[in-house]
Design a protein that fits this description.
The protein is an alpha+beta fold. It has seven helices and six strands, in the order H-E-E-H-E-E-E-E-H-H-H-H-H. Helix 5 runs antiparallel to helix 6.
Length: 217
Amino acid sequence: MCEDIISKLKFDEKGLIPAVVQDFYTGEVLTVAYMNAESLKITLDEKMTCFYSRSRQELWRKGETSGNRQHIVSVKADCDFDALTVKVIKDGPACHTGHESCFFNLIYKDESKTDFSADVLYDLIKGRKTEMKEGSYTTYLFEKGLDKILKKVGEECTEVIIGAAKKSKEETIFEISDLAYHVLVLMVEAGITPDDIRKELDSRHVVDHKVKQETMK
């Protein structure tokens, strides 16, 4: 099946095909690169992205020097077979500048719409730790240190329990939101990223799936 689809791919006159690389967990576009038949084969064989550099006229394995490798989860072709999407689990930033994605230069944004996510909030909290914005509650927590952060996490856990015990959905939502925020602060303080948590949860899912398969035999 895989070979049949690959044989249908339409490489351009230079033997290249564009590949849109996405974060497997968030769906964020990380970069747009090019592959030729050889780099695509390497990608599929090694299960890590390998591209063709148009400027250097050579193959390059992502992360070969930086260590920020990209482990492929899926490769799909579009309806015309002339472009690819590659979903990956990344070991580090996708961009050579150190940004998580190569797409960070904002040109336009509809301010009436929000792209809120745990990752966005995490990045905001992380920025407060580095910039220490005066008057920010998040900055205050980082200034007070780990003991204060742990105390707040503990307090918010208790508040969640109280809200849930009351069977108050509204209060429980409010308190879980507070807890989630303080846990993200703790994660930044401890150097833990959302990807670390996603990978851990994903590994548990794989284990559960294997156990289920074994029990069904």
